[in-house]
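User: What would this chain look like folded?
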Amino acid sequence: LAAGIGAVGGALAAQPAGAAGVDPVELGQQNQTETSTRVTASGALSDGLFGEATNGSATSSAWGVRGETDSVNGYGVYGRNRTSNGATVGVHGVASSPDGTGVEGTADGTRSATGRGPVGVFGHVVGVVNGRGVLGQVTSPDSEAAGVFGEAIEKGWGVTGLGADDDAGGGVLGICATGDGRGVNAVHQGGGIALEAQSIGGVGAVVGGTVAALRLGPSSGAPAAGTETHSFGELYVDQQTRQLWYCTASGTPGTWAQLSLPSLRAVTPFRVYDSRFGDGPLRLGSTRIVSVADSIDIVTGATLATDAVPTGAVAVTFNLTVFSTVGDGFVAATPGDATSFGTASVNWSGAGRVVGNATLVNLDASRRMKIFIGGTPGAQVGFTVDVTGFLL
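Assistant: Here's the prediction, encoded as structure tokens.
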């Protein structure tokens, strides 16, 4: 134990007698000018130094082991694992209270001219396969529990990892064995950056996965329609249209280029609407909302398949057929949220006509189109909608 065993809060006791034949060791207040104090123990479950504090309160703190050092490159508390095998630990801290901390390190100094800066807890692995400088393990069912918790009150980094100069080194390694867990989880509670990766002379981040290398979480609406401030280089996924955007210039909301365009998926034609099943003819002066989400039976009108046109589809190609016409007129297909139309989709002249046309129309967010009718007084018509493809 290097210089800096400093003060031992209250009393400091070793593991109780009888544990692997190790006798208790008790130390009182240590002289802060002392340069070295060593407590040695051997055997299974033995402790070189064991500290327990039980006299803490809501207004005062107690330490099982507390170490301070004023020396350059010194350690307040130093633990070393000398064994070559087994799950041994240099320094082990256990917290049994709800908000307790097993091992806490606080750094309140400033960076030296050549140093790495003040470090609260420093873990160092030298020449050991699968060694960990700092290992945090959570066995609590509490979703807020943390194996390693780093907090930066002002500037600085909550957790900093420094890897070796070869391919096998890693500054921070996060491993998760549960299906819905995270190896490393980064959360920013304000408007800053939750996770940042930089390389001085190489690649900032390499990602890979069996299912997918990377998944971008969707956002609501197109970025160009928002009021947030964005920066050059950002990627954005529109949850409604499933489109990927790239920020080409910083600003509010910035300048954006669409990287992913909807693609046409041709399908075996299926019917999604027939006015003979429920709604009846479309009459002059009215409109008709048509959902294209589900396919229907052409004989009975019963639903055959839900989401035949999937969520996220922005347009459909379809055949619009009119029948049982009355008078002269036309119908116009528009997005479901449209309030007007500009062109006709199908025209007819005279009664009892059957006329069809293939066309394309954008959908609203609910996968719907709207059919308008125009024509001579008293004009009316029945119609069907058969989908031949969709844009997604």
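The chain has a mean pLDDT of 79. If you want, I can go into more detail on any region.
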